[in-house]
Design brief:
Blueprint lengths: L5 E4 L6 E6 L2 E4 L9 H18 L27
Antiparallel strand pairs: 1-2, 2-3
Length: 81
């Protein structure tokens, strides 16, 4: 059986919200800038849950998570999540 690539269209032409292949799902999660950094992190992680549910997965199955910070001093917030 052939493993097909599945794409979920984003609001921008030529981009995908999610891509899956061979039971691996790649998801992008971004949020608008929120003045409170802790709340921005929570909103981004919360927003990640919906696409995972849509594909039948869950955040407990995340293999890797990449977070890009504009200020490296903010990384301490993640230690308390």
């Amino acid at each position: 059986m052939e493993n097909k690539i599945k794409r979920w269209n984003a609001s921008v032409p030529g981009r995908s919200r999610m891509v899956s292949h061979d039971n691996i799902i790649w998801v992008v999660s971004t949020v608008a800038k929120i003045p409170d950094f802790d709340k921005e992190v929570e909103a981004c992680l919360y927003q990640l849950e919906k696409p995972l549910e849509e594909t039948g997965s869950h955040k407990t199955h995340i293999l890797s998570l990449q977070i890009i910070l504009s200020r490296i001093e903010s990384r301490g917030v993640f230690y308390n999540l």
